[in-house]
Amino acid sequence: EAEKEFFSRVSEKANQIFLQHESKLKGLIVAGPGITKNEFLERGMLDYRLKEKILGSIDTSYTDESGIREVMQKSDELLKGAEVTKERAIVNKFLEEISKDGLIAYGDKEVLEAIELGKAKTVMVSESLGWEVVKIECEACGNVEEFIIKDTLTFKPSDLKCSKCSSSKVEELEEIDYIDFIIEKARSTGAEVRVISTETPEGEQFLKSFGGLGAFLRYK
Ligand SMILES: [Zn+2]
């Protein structure tokens, strides 16, 4: 009876605190010494929306502040595992959609176009691309444009020419990482961006077979 009372008190508090931030909440970890935390997960009255976000539980040796420190240390692995699982899932969904010719785009031109037209819902970009974007202004005609530099090792700023008047008198305005460039573009049209690591076979395949850039589309 005391246990039931305790569980309902904890559930109530947790629901009260976490539900108001539910949309921003990425995951919950339940921690504590012994098996009480597992019983809590089974019999507690945690709201179903919170239950869906539980990443796992962690055993601690203490119940005081050092227990909290323990949780911080041990949750790294748990969070990483959850991230990897999510990553594999999204790449697998991408492959599945491709196989049935679904609402998908891949390749840098196609994906960029999809973002700019507002067609992209979720954009996936490999963290290992290593591209850069150089923004220039033409001193002859005033044209401002962006060049995507895929091979940053052999790139020379002096190679850049204005595509409107072909003048090579161009001023470099800024140089940004391609992933930041994509995030910025996506933000302006309401697309979500997922950066995909190459730590999983799926992420590796995404980079090698699909150029490390893909998007789920709202429509075609
Ligand atoms: Zn020009």
TrEMBL record:
Chain segments annotated as coiled-coil in the UniProt record: none
InterPro entries annotated for this entry?
eFR1_2_sf (IPR042226), eRF1_2 (IPR005141), eRF1_3 (IPR005142), Peptide_chain-rel_eRF1/aRF1 (IPR004403), Ribosomal_eL30-like_sf (IPR029064)
Q: Where is the eRF1 domain?
A: 2-80, 85-220
Q: Which GO terms describe its molecular function?
A: translation release factor activity
Q: Name the domain of life.
A: Archaea
**What is the recorded name of this protein?**
Peptide chain release factor 1
Q: Which organism is it from?
A: Candidatus Iainarchaeum sp
Upper classification of the organism: Archaea, Candidatus Iainarchaeota, Candidatus Iainarchaeia, Candidatus Iainarchaeales, Candidatus Iainarchaeaceae
